[in-house]
Amino acid sequence: MKVLVPVKRVLDYNVKPRVKADGTGVDLANVKMSMNPFDEIAIEEAVRLKEKGAASEVVVVTIGVPKAETDILLTARAMGADRAILIATDDEVEPLAVAKLLAKVAQEEQPGLIILGKQAIDDDANQTGQMLAALLGWAQGTFASKVEVNGERVSVTREVDGGLETVDLKLPAIVTTDLRLNEPRYATLPNIMKAKSKPVAKKTIADYGVDVAPRLKTLKVVEPGKRQAGVKVGSVDELVERLKGLGVAK
Amino acid sequence: MKTLVWVEHDNKHVKDATLATVTAAAKLGEVHLLVAGSGAAGVADEAAKIAGVGKVHLADDAAFEHALAENVAPLIVTLMESHDAILFPSTTTGKNIAPRVAALLDVMQISDILSVEAPDTFTRPIYAGNAIATVQTSDKKLVITVRGTAFEKAATSGGSGTVEAVSGSGDAGLSTFAGSEIAESVRPELTSAKIIVSGGRALQNSENFHSIIEPLADKLGAAVGASRAAVDAGYVPNDYQVGQTGKIVAPEVYIAVGISGAIQHLAGMKDSKIIVAINKDEDAPIFQVADIGLVGDLFKIVPELTEKL
Questions:
Q1: The domain at A2-245 falls in which architecture?
Q2: Which residues bind FAD (chain B) (predicted)?
């Protein structure tokens, strides 16, 4: 079984986003970009399936700037992906259009499982995996904290609001990862060197014949209202008084 | 505009998350509800009483019992022939189903809206709430998820909706529900609690979390939350997590104990009315958003606080 892992290049999660002064978006010039953290978890899970013998090949795909070839796609291959597909574009592509492109890739590649991050930490949309499942007519196991492949089915334990829920899905299927699915390995230097010889297929959006015209127009982006730091109290007694004043305690 | 709201429920009662979504839908136009479940007639009757509600569509079928997206999405697509918008609460159920519906309708979903600016224009948080985007859609039908803390809750009484049975295509044959571990708690639910006491990694272990945080919460009648670090370390289960990828909360009072205040955590609680922070590190970022801060050893402070309250 082949596993396909779509990944996204985003502002590194340690970098504080800065809203551009003209209100057109978040400033991404000269800041560190990395693979979306949930996508690293997706790659790790795919590589572990291969190591266990449940998967035969791990293919990673991204839709984004050409530079992704030498950063996130290199990291992905160093983590254990066998090859990569880069669908190059300088434009922002919305989740619906991404899902349409990925559906085309899935038709070509015929994976048994597609594992995606549950959301990208830039637009926080949390849509692509579910949309891709809809377009392919496949089952979906979102927000996964455990994945077990058993022959023609996959069992997915999901993190839901009240706790955990397990669903049993027919393959091929879509899985989206939550934080506690695994701890991704580091791309070590020797593996990064070796990864450079793993193939990257370079494509363009035109190769897939998908209409990616945006449906949403961003009118403006602003910083949220800031909270002011309050007071520091010196003792528990003072804190108790304050809480009583708020009506929290009698 | 004719809107449809996904009713969040457990086949017995309407869940609170539904109510803020009704308020958001009412800003767009007429509000109809969808109760998809199994043996859920009681839920539909309860839902019909929510203030401002028109029709309640009840889809009662064993295939809908666990709200599997594969089974309910086609039902919603059919109902969308006669509605202009579908709104879901931003719960794990809503977030699971909404994009599947959107893709089937060929619509770009608008996630986690904070406000309705115009019938086609909404605000929503991006970058863990570090920026707020105003977006305008060109789609004919709307698929929206609603951040519960951003809208008032609709009243649970005063409505006189009519319940109408609808049927879907049943089981899509793609997925089955295999079980769940849902924690039964006597404490209030995190997303609707008035007071929350949250603990972080500084608690050091599960035993301390229970013996330090829970007595304070119980004294205040509060819900218990946790930072991602505390959940990752296994002190408490995943459903306690407050933050960008956990639950978004906005209680009257949020008491953060031993939580440093990572961006990802602040994203989940910075809209709380009053934030109280207890931390031994006076430079911890949590103090930059806290209304009341107390610097010191939580293992001394919290038991003393619990006793004196």
A1: 3-Layer(aba) Sandwich (3.40)
A2: 201, 227-228, 241-245, 258-265, 279
